[in-house]
User: Fold this.
Amino acid sequence: MKSEIEDILKRSQLSVTDSRKKILELFQKTNAALAHADIEKKTGEHFDRVTIYRTLQTFLEKGIIHSIPTADNSVLYALCKDECAEGHHHDDHVHFICDECGTTYCLENSTIPEVKLPKGFIQKRADVVVSGICEKCN
Ligand SMILES: [Zn+2]
Ligand SMILES: [Zn+2]
Ligand SMILES: [Zn+2]
Assistant:
């Protein structure tokens, strides 16, 4: 797992730092979306808010993680698949939020359906969030 993390960083031409390694590791372990506060809670003893914030911004720019908007206007982050690269995200999948545990998952195999827009409208992004009960809570 360690070398995979270093691989991702190298591919993105990022130097391997403690914060980048730890935060990436956390994403891989969790396998679900994380809020800034979750990351802070789990790595807070090692890094301060600003470091975490900067690391997340770098990952976003490099196509390592993508952001997921939520109903309460907070932002969640989740790992991208390999298709994403610097400045080019292809995270056109549906997200699932569990009503019980509040976990948000990426449904990589469910693509957001194309929406037919009226003439003159231009789509910039689309977010589909399905809510319900996850596997663990079911
Ligand atoms: Zn992405
Ligand atoms: Zn759940
Ligand atoms: Zn996602």
